[in-house]
Write a structure and sequence with these properties.
heterodimer, A: 448 residues, 2 domains, 6-stranded mixed barrel, two-stranded antiparallel ribbon, B: Rossmann fold, 4-stranded antiparallel β-sheet, 27% strand
């Protein structure tokens, strides 16, 4: 009982306890804020990639695509674990505005907007046709024209808050999109003749996926027209990829394995050249498909986690030093307690209880401060911008809206438990050292 | 003629030395001592003669290099850690020259600290009422009732020493060990403390007191002198 009373009194009456408490609170505050923002950025980035791709992709990096995709789409459509399937054309193109005559290189994606929206978050990236995705390629100003959806950062500028200024109706802009059609073997399909396929599309909507690369360099076109432009609409039609979404109760790995098995047996059913054409096709989950982008972000997260593990080690050291000082100053008390019959474990228990209180209350204060700070972080950033023109990320450059501030309780629990363990670890050595002293030694020495 | 069983405490051939830098200081050089039940014994000697060291060894706060200390026939050196803790908690009460009170606790809490230290939290719930009554009685006996909620730093030296006596007596120990209990007090206050010891002795308490002051030692029933690490009479 006296251990609890003394632990509380040490906490409340000793100024050095406030130092330990503040050190823990500050470290927890920093870790909570940075980990929340960082985890938010990474999970937001992953979620956007997931939304952009769907769950699984059967496809090839080859610009000539692969044949018989339609047959496989039919197989997938019949599977009960599949929610939706979208065949996609991917290629590179030059686009020139009729007004300026300037040619810019783009990536093009040919999609059926309705089917693609069942698999991905495409519909949600639109502005004008968000609620009528089937009309995504029909410009509001003239629905008879062939439309295209352009990455938002090609069309609109962002303000310092990351907001875009949309017109009530998209401007009538014509883009001449030119592709080099290729044969199935990769040769130029129109060698010697005009060589390029060109078709004019009208700006019908923007796509705001939140992914910097896609929002700056991607144009969505109607599937059939993209297929024709790329020379994939021959007698045996080809596509670049099939995007798949699984039913909500299907685990990603399980779904991908099932698709891979289906693809393998589909491929085995083909012979000769037909089969060779399909060999280059891979089945990947969205994470694998986008690993080039996600891996860089995850690497950064890992690096920062390691750095914060070092911050954790520093915290343990600070707490160790503080507790060493506290226990040293309390050697007389230890001697008194041992002279009235307190055991070694009682002494260790007393200082462990004290450390636990410092850890619990310090991390509690750190979490509370962090939570309040995160709640207001975007307002604080706005205020800093208004007063000092300072922004954490320049929204005119980085595709970031609000700073992520969604606290994950799992992360919080890990941080609080780690802080308490750090305090206990920091207090253990000096209290163990003190507990081993004979009572008279503890009474005699003024410092350990 | 008294038998060995009449002695509460007896020590045989106690040796103790300390290292001081490169040299070794031999403090006790074969001390033999016996304390009878209900006796008030004063150990006198010059400063540095080893009085406090002897008292610490008798109260199991320190260990001798050689020799045996028996309490009611039981060899302290054969006791395990748990038994020694119980011995310090229940059998012996210590009064130090510099009071050694816990600044974070009130007078009342300092006094019933040994009662708390001897039991678990659940045990304390059962003991609490008795401990408060006992502590209250001690406060009254020592004239500290008005000071129960004060902190040690709010008390005078004499009051602090009375709190230390109260703490030493809390668990009704069979042996009270006092190390220069008046050494830090003026003579008036010191006499007050000695009167407390005399009253306790009259009530049957066994007391061993260390002092360098022959005048104070006269209050005890028996006086022994420690000189050059040995009992000289």
């Amino acid at each position: 009982m006296y251990k609890i009373i003394l632990a509380f009194r040490y906490l409340l009456k000793r100024h050095i306890s406030y130092l330990a408490f503040s050190a823990v609170a500050l470290c927890v505050f920093i870790v909570v804020v940075v980990m929340t923002v960082l985890t938010g950025l990474v999970s937001d980035f992953k979620q956007k990639n997931h939304s952009f791709v769907g769950d699984c992709v059967v496809g090839t990096e080859s610009l000539v695509g692969f044949a018989y995709y339609g047959d496989f789409v039919k197989i997938l459509d019949k599977e009960d674990f599949v929610e939706g399937v979208s065949e996609v054309i991917k290629n590179y193109a030059l686009a020139s505005s009729h007004g300026t005559g300037e040619s810019i290189s783009f990536e093009i994606m040919g999609i059926d907007p309705v089917r693609h929206s069942r698999v991905t978050g495409f519909a949600q990236t639109l502005h004008y046709r968000k609620n009528s995705v089937s009309s995504a390629f029909e410009p509001i100003y003239d629905s008879n024209l062939s439309g295209c959806v352009i990455g938002i950062d090609r069309m609109l500028l962002r303000d310092f808050n990351g907001r875009y200024s949309y017109e009530a109706v998209p401007n009538k802009i014509a883009l001449a999109v030119s592709c080099f059609p290729l044969t199935a073997t990769g040769a130029l399909a129109k060698a010697g003749a005009g060589e390029v396929n060109t078709k004019t599309f009208y700006y019908s909507d923007t796509s705001h996926s939140g992914l910097a690369h896609e929002d700056f360099s991607l144009i969505y076109l109607p599937f059939e027209q993209a297929q024709q432009l790329c020379g994939m609409a021959g007698p045996i039609k080809r596509a670049s990829a099939i995007h798949i979404k699984f039913k909500s109760n299907v685990k990603l790995e399980t779904g991908c394995k099932k698709v891979a098995l289906l693809w393998e047996s589909f491929k085995q059913a083909r012979t000769g050249e037909e089969r060779a054409d399909l060999e280059k096709v891979t089945v990947q989950s969205w994470k694998g498909y986008r690993r080039a982008f996600i891996a860089a972000m995850e690497k950064e997260q890992t690096m920062l986690t390691v750095m914060f593990a070092l911050v954790g080690v520093t915290t343990v050291f600070i707490v160790f030093v503080v507790f060493y000082m506290i226990v040293s100053h309390k050697s007389k008390d230890i001697g008194i307690l041992k002279s009235i019959g307190a055991s070694r474990s009682d002494v260790i228990g007393l200082f462990s209880g004290f450390a636990f209180l410092v850890g619990l209350l310090g991390s509690g204060a750190g979490v509370l401060l962090g939570w309040v700070f995160l709640l207001k972080i975007n307002r604080i950033e706005d205020w800093l911008y208004e007063c000092f023109k300072f922004q954490l990320w320049d929204r005119t450059i980085y595709v970031i809206g609000d700073i992520p501030n969604q606290i994950e309780f799992r992360v919080l629990a890990v941080i609080v438990v780690s802080a308490i363990v750090a305090c206990l670890a920091g207090a253990f050595v000096p209290s163990y050292q003190a507990a081993r002293l004979e009572p008279v030694e503890a009474l005699r020495v003024s410092r350990l | 003629m008294k038998s060995k069983d009449d002695f509460m405490l007896d020590a045989e051939g106690l040796y103790k030395s300390y290292r001081m830098g490169e040299s070794e200081v031999r403090v006790l050089k074969g001390v033999d001592l016996a304390v009878k039940r209900g006796e008030f014994l004063a150990i006198v000697g010059a400063s540095g003669s080893g009085k406090s060291t002897l008292l610490h060894i008798l109260g199991a706060l320190d260990r001798p290099d050689k020799g045996i200390v028996r309490f009611e026939g039981r060899d302290l050196s054969r006791m395990g850690y748990g038994e020694l803790n119980r011995f310090r908690n229940k059998m012996v009460g210590f009064v130090f020259q510099f009071y050694h009170l816990l600044d974070e606790l009130s007078v009342m809490e300092n006094i019933f600290l040994p009662a708390m230290a001897g039991v678990s939290i659940i045990g304390w719930l059962g003991w609490r009422r008795w401990a408060r009554r006992r502590a209250g009685a001690l406060l009254s006996q020592l004239g500290l009732s008005e000071r129960a909620e004060h902190k040690p730093y709010q008390l005078s030296g004499g009051e602090r020493q009375r709190v230390a006596i109260g703490r030493a007596l809390m668990n009704e120990p069979r042996l009270l060990l006092a190390d220069e209990p008046t050494g830090n007090l003026d003579s008036g206050t010191g006499n007050g403390i000695l009167r407390v010891f005399e009253e306790l002795h009259r009530a049957g308490q066994t007391i061993v007191m260390v002092t360098h002051d022959e005048r104070i030692a006269q209050k005890a029933g028996r006086i022994i002198t420690l000189a050059d690490g040995k009992i000289s009479d």
